[in-house]
Amino acid sequence: MPKIFRDPSFDSTLDVLREGYPFLYNRSQRFNSDIFQIRLMGLPAICLHGAEAAELFYNPKLFIRKGAVPRRVQTTLMGLDAIQTRDNGEHRCRKEMFMALMGPASRQRLMSLLAEQWQRYAHRWEKMDRVVLFREAQEILCRAACAWAEVPLAEEEVSQRARDFGDMVDGFGGVGPRHWRGKQARSRGEKWMRGIIRAIRKGQLPVQKGSPAHMVAWYRDTNGELLDVQMAAIELMNATRPIVAIATYITFAALALHEHPAYRQLLRNPAEDYAELFVQEVRRYFPFTPFVGALVREEFTWHGFEFPKGTLVLLDVYGTNRDEREWQDPEVFWPERFRQRKPSPYDFIPQGGGEFLTGHRCAGEWITIEALKQAVAFLNDGIRYDVPAQDLRYNLTRMPTLPASGFVLTNVQATGKGA
Ligand code: HEM
After folding, report:
1. What is the count of structural domains for the chain?
2. Cα separation of 304 and 250, whole Å?
3. Closest residue to atom 11 of ligand 1, CA basis
4. Residue 379: which domain range?
5. Residue 406 counted as domain residue
6. What integer pLDDT is reported at residue 340 of this predicted model?
7. In a domain, 23, yes or no
8. Measured in angstroms, how far is the CA atom of residue 288 from the centroid of ligand 1?
9. What is the CA(238)–ligand 1 centre distance, in A?
10. 367 to 24, 148, 158, 239, 370: CA distances (angstroms)
11. Residue 416: what pLDDT?
12. Residue identifier of the C-alpha nearest atom 9 of ligand 1
């Protein structure tokens, strides 16, 4: 039986927080291995890196999610006992509901709502001295996500709700105040969503059949019962909050346009969907999800390595997207790489890998790609702007990360085009 490399550190919990995104990648490089072992919170954890390991990780017969996501991540990012922690038929049934929201007509409706907001905000920005793109994009996405989901959002609530959605995401890798902000944002958000679910069920809030709010409020689990109000609130938020999180990729896309202005012309070429290549590279190159975790369902071996039942297994998302075996010059931002070959469900995993229905691959991947393409078109042609001197560096030891300034624009002029 081959020997598994063990990280010499007695416990790596603090190192993960200290090193951030490259933690797993650094070790897989150091050990020159796609598999190695660390200790996390006192327990052994097997770490996996690369496409072949991702294929293993996304085999639902081998892994379960119940018990794999730390409580601190559930109480900020995704909600307690949500779809991300479900397995087998229960997961499949709930995932079908999420995927039913992702059809072409539903996506098109979201994109139209977003396009309206981008144009509206462009005119607002003309009157502002300084626009922090990240914050503004969060508001745009929040307004459109709520309208799409048929979640009522009063004008005076917009900025707080947008910030709360953002803080839930920001809280996942944080300790101290950042974690608490995320938790508080989540309790406010869940209370809000519980009120909406109750109002729909009592017939006090009319919503269109097939809209996200209607689907979640009336969804019946494998036991034939409606979700309890709290669970429905959490899942309605799982259909809206991550739309606001696309602001992170939009901010990185703005950075890529700024650092590589030559792509502006290529993005205007009507003969090719260059935006597709560009946004795929944004999702590959820039850090967002560091890793995902699961527990071994029943003991098995892989390439002679033993996976004992119940062991925590972490898949290196950040590092797999920059694995030199799959990606030539991975540290170079180069959208054309996606013209040369189509990624597989395992070598390009910014939003998880594998299958949508039978696995935990992100339900919102198509929405993310379309919303990003639209935002890139808007930044390229919908407005003209200056990028003043500012700190655009992003810190890989902070999870999630972002250009420090949030990407500031000045002298914005709307052109009426794009988006
Ligand atoms: C799951 C990332 C946008 C809904 C996931 C997973 C990741 C992810 C890494 C987990 C994969 C795994 O556990 O193996 C992202 C990123 C996004 C994004 C980086 C961009 C901002 C969205 C959007 C939606 C969405 C726009 C819906 C509107 C979900 C849901 C799950 C999920 C429902 C749970 C899937 C399951 O457990 O089966 N996402 N996501 N996400 N995402 Fe996203």
Report:
1. 1
2. 43
3. 352
4. 5-414
5. yes
6. 84
7. yes
8. 11
9. 8
10. 28, 12, 21, 11, 5
11. 82
12. 351
Instruction: Give the CATH number, domain containing residue 199.
Output: 1.10.630.10
> Ligand 1: which atom is nearest the Cα of residue 85?
37
Q: At 121, is the pLDDT very low, low, confident or very high (cuts 50, 70, 90)?
A: very high
Q: What are the structure tokens assigned to 337, written together?
A: 């790489």
Q: Which of 91, 34, 82 minimizes the C-alpha distance to 63?
A: 91
Share of the chain above pLDDT 90, in %: 94
In angstroms, the CA 412 to CA 181 distance is 32
Residue 217 lies in a domain: yes
d(CA 31, CA 36) in angstroms, rounded, equals 8
Q: Determine the distance separating the centroid of ligand 1 and the alpha carbon of 362, expressed in angstroms.
A: 3
Distance 196 CA to ligand 1 centre (A): 23
In a domain, 419, yes or no: no
pLDDT of residue 417: 79
Q: CA–CA separation, 217 vs 201, rounded Å?
A: 7
Is the model more confident about 299 or about 270?
299
Ligand 1-lining residues (CB < 6 angstroms): 83-84, 95, 98, 238-239, 242-243, 245-246, 249, 288-289, 292, 350-352, 360-364, 367-368
Residues 72-77: contacts with CB under 8 Å, at least 24 apart: 72/179, 73/172, 75/182, 75/183, 75/186, 76/168, 76/171, 76/172, 76/174, 76/179, 76/182, 76/183, 76/185, 76/186, 77/168, 77/169, 77/171, 77/172, 77/182
> How many residues belong to the chain?
419
